Fold:
Amino acid sequence: MTAIVGVLNKHAVAIAADSAVTLGGGRKVMNGANKLFALSKYHPVAIAIYGNAEFIGTPWEIIIKEYRKQLKDKSFPTLRMYVDDFQRFLKRRKYFCSEKEANDYLKSSVQGLYLNILQICKNHPDRIDNVLSRLEQSKTQPLLGGFKDETVTFFNEEVKKEIENGCKMLQTEGITVDIVRMKEIIEAVFTRDVISLGTTGLVFAGYGESEIFPSIYNCNVGCVINGLLAKVVKNASRINKDNLSGICPFAQTDVMHTILDGVSPKMHEVYLQSLEQTFVKMKNALASLAESSYPELASQIRGLDITPFGTEFLKMSKTTQMKEYTMPFVRSVATLEKEDLADFAESLITLTSLKRKVSFDQETVGGPVDVMVISKGDGIIWMKRKHYFDPDKNHHFFSNYFNL
Structure:
């Protein structure tokens, strides 16, 4: 797992990333992974990765450095054009895998989704409806960019056996599912969304040639289906004269959101549950008062649906929280200098690591924190950077940097 954050204002963008990598299905954590890279050796553009460290068997570090080598000193007017060019590069290089490898990875991803469902529901078969209902939300989304009806047809034919076998596996474990419903859900999950299971997040940060203020884009990539990459690209933050600052956390964001929002994300659910329980007690108390004189009214009070009230309360509290706490916090970033941006970004990662260390959670965020500051005038400046070698003994590496 990973924690990455970008902090930006008119002066620069600072990116910080931890070094933890989870192996063996979460059984082992190592603290030496590189997740932050210069995307160009000549221009102020960087990339960070989170999620799956490999793309269909090829480490992202290799892919990024291959892209950087062919890019040379070429630049693009906007950061978004770097994002699009990187995707075109993946396609030109045939996604660094054969067609069979891409299809096998697609099949294994479907199997992995079934195993994930099994892990959640194995001892609690009644949870299956909630799990499937959440996954069904993908059906409301449009097809991923570049996907067509032929893409969906190819997907259904390619993973037909995996869908059937997955349903049989769940039913063997006592989890009842409808195969037609599962087929529709899995089709939607893989062709209309980019699921978190086995996917990679790519964070692009910096400047295009014609841009004077920084921006950050987040691109989530999944499988390759019939030669097309499953991807979702979002503009995480873009500085302009109306938007003076931004804080963009990625991957494990719970601690950072606690700091930025003033309350833990989990507490929102606790608040809602507590409020609903309070409403239930209140309406039962009111119904009891009216029972003797107005039995029909008492029955109506007990049957009152309190869900909309809880939803409205949560919406109002989040709006107030954003206005009174989060936005003033984010706006304060607009006044920070470059070194302060770097310190702030590093501190957010360090606090996330500390939380994992002192709690009973697995230490999935940790190790040295790499910190980079990118500005229009100075380009990429490493504030903190780990090396797997001793820099004093490898001067040739730095001397030949632009030739590698």
